[in-house]
Amino acid sequence: MICRCTESNRQEIYEIINDAASAYKGVIPGDRWREPYMPMEELMEQITQGVEFWSDIENGRMLGVMGIQDRVDVTLIRHAYVRTEARNKGIGSKLLNHLTVLTIKPVLIGTWADAFWAIHFYQKHGFRVLSQIEKNFLLGKYWSIPERQMETSVVLADRHWVSEK
Under a CB-based contact definition with an 8 Å cutoff, are residues 18 and 81 in contact? Predict the structure, then answer.
């Protein structure tokens, strides 16, 4: 069952993100990896900046989380994570499908360039990788991330995205 997360879910969101992010260790650049991958303070800051988390709960247990963030003319999908033991069971697809119907705006997603599994997942759902020029522009406009993370990331867009060329 897909549910909007509340303040009472923050610890569980934190645990899922940091469990699932272990897949990035040794894949993303070493200077971008840290433990915990997302400290609680950063999670709280993301929520303060308008990231609304949703979860998939089965048998009373939260198995995955995904955030959505309104950014005036686009919607961002943020922080999509599924518990390690619950991967490849359709949880990410259920969350992504649910969140994308909550908006009529173009949807953008940023992820690590070396996270081939994440890129493939989004492509399977109709998203396309944008050019380097578009990626750099969009990351600067809609995200607040360090320059080094911009260099090592990609941006994907849904079918509603029209390039600003």
Answer: no
